[in-house]
């Protein structure tokens, strides 16, 4: 990442924004912060908020969380790379933020469900990372729905003012990501061999981290044998 780009980012952030960005010094810390944001339920319509608006509202959906994480990485001199997943049927697409450590890829992810979350940097290729999301990407009837993933999408092609501190929705950026080059994830001839997710997996996926009223869902505490020892009310 050119030092001039990082310097430009730092010049347009407010003092409060800079304070938050400066503390998020690793992918793990960025993920913890993204997890602390409420899920954007888009009650008033579809949004594509910039990181500035995410901080102002305290909420984000997967794309907004990914763009926020990319902005923080860029603030610290790393490439702001997104990875877009496209799905079949009427399933939703998903977006994560890529990072690299010691030659291996990981991902920061905002989601309200147990699957499609953070990935540690243990993947030797983007395809390996993308494939790690395949098993848990399914419809409520069990059909596996992930079909393709994008090549790394570099947000540094845009001026920081146009995506980090923008007040308008990032429609043009989202369109560019959606129409960028994507690679099929299912090997040719293997589509018919896919096994649907089991009823147990589907049931487990129904858990959410954030409730409709904006509160974080309570989590039961369990002992070493998996038995609940503190059931939240």
What does this structure look like?
With 233 residues, this protein is α+β, with helices and mostly antiparallel strands. It has a single domain (3-208), classed as C8orf32 fold, CATH 3.10.620. Helix content is 30%, strand content 19%. The chain is built from eight helices and eleven strands. The protein has helices at 3-12, 15-23, 27-36, 51-57, 62-75, 126-131, 171-178, 199-205, and strands at residues 38-39, 59-60, 81-87, 94-101, 104-108, 119-123, 146-150, 153-154, 182-184, 221-222, 228-230. Strands 3, 4, 5, 6, 7, 8 and 9 form a seven-stranded antiparallel beta sheet that branches. The chain has a two-stranded parallel ribbon with strand order 1-2. β10 (221-222) and β11 form a beta hairpin. α3 (27-36) packs antiparallel against α5 (62-75). The longest helix is centred in the N-terminal third of the chain and has 14 residues, at 62-75.
Shape: globular
Radius of gyration: 18 Å
Distance between the termini: 48 Å
Annotated CATH architecture: Roll
> Helices and strands, in N-to-C order?
HHHEHEHEEEEHEEHEHEE
Question: Would you spell out the secondary-structure blueprint of this structure?
Answer:
Layout: H1 3-12, H2 15-23, H3 27-36, E1 38-39, H4 51-57, E2 59-60, H5 62-75, E3 81-87, E4 94-101, E5 104-108, E6 119-123, H6 126-131, E7 146-150, E8 153-154, H7 171-178, E9 182-184, H8 199-205, E10 221-222, E11 228-230
């Amino acid at each position: 990442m050119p030092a001039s780009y990082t310097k430009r980012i730092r010049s347009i952030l407010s003092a409060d924004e800079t304070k938050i960005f400066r503390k998020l010094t690793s992918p793990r810390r960025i993920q913890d912060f993204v997890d602390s944001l409420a899920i954007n339920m888009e009650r008033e319509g579809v949004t594509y908020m910039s990181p500035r608006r995410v901080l102002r509202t305290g909420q984000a959906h997967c794309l907004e969380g990914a763009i926020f994480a990319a902005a923080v990485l860029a603030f610290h001199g790393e490439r702001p790379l997104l990875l877009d997943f496209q799905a079949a049927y009427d399933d939703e697409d998903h977006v994560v933020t890529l990072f690299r450590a010691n030659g291996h890829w990981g991902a920061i992810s905002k989601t309200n469900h147990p699957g499609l979350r953070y990935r540690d940097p243990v993947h030797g290729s983007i395809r390996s990372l993308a494939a790690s999301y395949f098993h848990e990407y399914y419809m409520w009837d069990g059909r596996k729905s992930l079909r393709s993933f994008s090549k790394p999408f570099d947000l540094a092609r845009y001026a920081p003012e146009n995506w980090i501190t923008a007040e308008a929705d990032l429609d043009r950026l989202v369109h560019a990501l959606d129409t960028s080059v994507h690679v099929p994830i299912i090997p040719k001839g293997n589509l018919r061999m896919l096994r649907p997710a089991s009823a147990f997996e589907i049931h487990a996926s129904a858990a959410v981290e954030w409730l409709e009223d904006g509160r974080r869902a309570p989590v039961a505490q369990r002992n070493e044998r998996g038995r609940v020892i503190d059931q939240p009310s």
